[in-house]
Write a structure and sequence with these properties.
Layout: H1 2-7, H2 11-54, H3 68-120, H4 122-159
Length: 160
């Protein structure tokens, strides 16, 4: 077209040629923009597909995750795993309860035996009362130290 316009001296033809070049340039720019957008979407889709493939439930269910049946199977598998974990927690709690009950009965038996021995032997009773006094004194000292620390922390916090 340029050869044809260069052979003629018509201003209308040169103006038409310029306009066609501008349109071609605009269309090329639009094509480049659409092509880059298409590439970006394709890469995004590929990333999402690879992520969903890794996120599937251990590969034990079929890959057709679009169906409602597949979604229900996934939900059922998740519920079964949760139920199994809750059963394990309940079993551990029951075992812990049994151990605590056994300890309570053991300490109760020890306490009753010490009371029986202390009532029969006055010297053992004297030793046990000294232990109780020492224990109560230690408890009082520990509570005083804890309250003093708390007061010092509050004073420090309020002084800031």
């Amino acid at each position: 077209m340029q050869v044809w316009v260069s052979s003629g001296t018509s201003d209308v033809l040169s103006h038409t040629l310029t306009r066609h070049k501008e349109i071609l340039h605009d269309l090329n720019q639009e094509f480049i923009r659409l092509r880059s957008s298409f590439k970006a979407r394709r890469e995004h889709e590929a990333l999402l597909q690879s992520f969903s493939a890794r996120d599937s439930v251990n590969g034990d269910l079929e890959k057709n995750s679009d169906s409602a049946e597949q979604a229900l199977l996934n939900e059922q598998a998740i519920l079964q795993r949760s139920t199994g974990q809750m059963d394990n927690v309940v079993l551990h709690a029951q075992a812990t309860l049994g151990a605590l009950v056994f300890q309570r009965s053991t300490f109760g038996n020890i306490s009753s035996k010490l009371t029986n021995v202390s009532s029969r032997l006055p010297s053992v009773n004297h030793v046990l009362s000294a232990i109780r006094r020492r224990k109560s004194m230690d408890t009082i000292i520990l509570s005083l130290v804890a309250s003093a620390c708390t007061i010092f922390i509050l004073l420090y916090w309020l002084s800031k």
